[in-house]
Amino acid sequence: MTTTPTDDPAHSSSDPLPGSPAGAPSPAGPPAGAGAAELADAMTRAIKRIRRQTGWRLEPYGITPGQARALRTLAHVPGCETPDHAMRLSDLAEKLHIAPRSATTVVDALEEAGLVERSPDPADRRAVRILLTEAGRAAVERIGQVRDEVAQEYFGEVSPADEEVLLRVLRSAEARFLAAGPPRR
């Protein structure tokens, strides 16, 4: 199998070359302007590993990472257990950045598992609201524990100061990206 820089964490442009003494930097270093691309590659690797570990840990509960995202999104709505406050299916799709049909598929699986219930929207009979059940609330708690465990395993050796810097940088980059408006397609 051929690997790309995104797939192979064993070598990055700042890692020593094979056969070099441990701790010796790569003589060439990253090409000019490659910092952002290298950062994006490192983030992609981290996200893939964290998502994969989270998926494996959620598997015994019968929950996929996509379903976990939907449950967590629903749980952030105050009063999500009551029809008047529950989120509309279309709003869930929008918050998850997925097509309404995909949100329907996710909700179908969650409803089958007893984690959510559908309810007619009191304000619009054509719309459906999604209510988090007691079992769904318990699943959200398990998801939170799994997320905390995986994050601690991945970032456990990172200093609190470095975590703060990384979080600040990512929040700043996200804010600038969103302020620029919708991306061109």
Overview of this protein structure:
The two termini are 31 Å apart. This protein is mainly α and 185 residues long. The longest helix is centred in the first third of the chain and has 24 residues. Helix 1 crosses helix 5 and helix 2 packs across helix 5. 53% of the residues lie in helices and 9% in strands. The protein has six helices and three strands, in the order ααβααββαα. The protein has a three-stranded antiparallel sheet. The radius of gyration is 21 Å and the shape is globular.
Descriptive labels:
185 residues, mainly alpha, 3 strands, 53% helix, disordered N terminus
Outline:
By secondary structure, this protein is mostly helical. It contains 6 helices and 3 strands. The longest helix has 24 residues.
